[in-house]
């Protein structure tokens, strides 16, 4: 069953106040009568229909990993959850961080900071060439030197966001 959004809860309360029966309202929103009663009780007690605060635990898997898990079990329905988790951990630890990706990000930031910004493809090409030539060699060496720290951060974050 789907969770009612705030505007649906407002409509639900309006229908009840308008004299529509609880069963009809429940059928209209495809929820149980108990959901209607609980919504009405909460509105009477708090004067609000807003969602209550929920725990904000960090997700253990990314959307990409969820897709991997689903497809993995569709391909091999006898695979255990621990086998799948072991595969995910191997993938997380072998996730390559390319220094070229970082270099292109650096180049992208430098081009985006230009004033005025390139408006045509030719201007963009010129800006890329100029910024490529203007990137100090020290920045490239610093980027290469930071790769070990970056890789460690990705491994420790287990696929979640890092500060890099």
UniProtKB/TrEMBL annotation:
Residues 7-60 form the Transposase Synechocystis PCC domain. Residues 42-51 have a biased composition (Basic and acidic residues). One of its GO terms (molecular function) is nucleic acid binding. Gene3D superfamilies: Ribonuclease H-like superfamily/Ribonuclease H. It comes from the Eukaryota. SUPFAM superfamilies: Homeodomain-like. Residues 42-61 are annotated as: Disordered. InterPro entries: Homeodomain-like_sf, RNaseH_sf, Transposase_14. This is Transposable element Tcb1 transposase. It comes from Elysia marginata.
């Amino acid at each position: 069953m789907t969770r009612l959004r705030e505007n649906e809860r407002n409509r639900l309360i309006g229908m009840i106040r308008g004299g529509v029966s609880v069963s009809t309202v429940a059928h209209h929103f495809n929820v149980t009568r108990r959901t209607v009663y609980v919504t009405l009780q909460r509105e009477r007690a708090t004067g609000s229909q807003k969602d209550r605060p929920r725990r904000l635990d960090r997700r253990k898997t990314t959307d990409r990993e969820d897709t991997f898990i689903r497809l993995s079990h569709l391909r091999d329905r006898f695979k255990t959850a621990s086998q799948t988790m072991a595969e995910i951990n191997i993938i997380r630890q072998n996730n390559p961080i390319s220094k070229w990706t970082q270099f292109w990000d650096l180049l992208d930031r430098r081009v985006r900071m230009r004033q005025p910004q390139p408006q045509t493809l030719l201007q963009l090409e010129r800006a890329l060439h100029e910024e490529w030539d203007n990137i100090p060699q020290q920045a490239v060496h610093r980027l290469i030197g930071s790769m070990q720290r970056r890789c460690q951060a990705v491994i420790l974050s287990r696929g979640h966001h890092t500060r890099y």
